[in-house]
Write a structure and sequence with these properties.
Helix content: 25-40%
Oligomer: single chain
Number of domains: 1
CATH architecture: 2-Layer Sandwich
Order of helices and strands: HHEHEHHEE
Number of strands: 4
Number of helices: 5
Structural class: alpha+beta
Strand order of the largest sheet: 1-4-2-3
């Protein structure tokens, strides 16, 4: 038979459920590559897929480091809140719907780390910060 490991009683008490995580877990990710945005067209599908997988892996690794090891989803819709900091001087304002679409790779990586299907997510909230430097994305879980 396999080795069965149990948590000590104090560890079981300290492990938050999904609601306990929502108030504090935050991950920071790079600004999505141009090809991941709906208007960022490319004929090179391999390049787009490689960028998608790279961004998905970044989100997966960041989420694993932010989650407690004993995390278990409680079945409620998971609300993600993105704070988008655009790169330096942008020529155009970013649309909310395009920003949500560009975050798909990140959402897939987060879902994989949480061991849930990405249909478990509610429609994410998007906030925009002032453009600066190389930009970035902060995700509140």
């Amino acid at each position: 038979m396999g080795d069965v490991r149990t948590l000590p009683s104090d560890a079981a008490k300290s492990c938050p459920d999904r609601r306990g995580l929502a108030s504090g877990a935050m991950i920071t990710l790079p600004f999505p590559a141009k090809v991941l945005w709906p208007n960022g067209r490319t004929r090179n599908v391999r390049w787009r897929n490689a960028e998608f997988q790279k961004h998905k892996q970044w989100a997966y690794n960041a989420t694993l480091s932010a989650l407690p090891r004993c995390f278990k989803w409680n079945g409620e819709p998971i609300k993600l809140r993105y704070t988008v900091t655009p790169k330096g001087a942008t020529r155009r304002a970013i649309d909310r719907d395009n920003a949500i679409a560009a975050m798909k790779a990140y959402q897939d990586g987060i879902a994989q780390a949480m061991k849930v299907d990405d249909s478990a997510f509610a429609v994410p909230e998007i906030e925009f910060a002032k453009p600066m430097g190389i930009g970035g994305i902060e995700v509140a879980l």
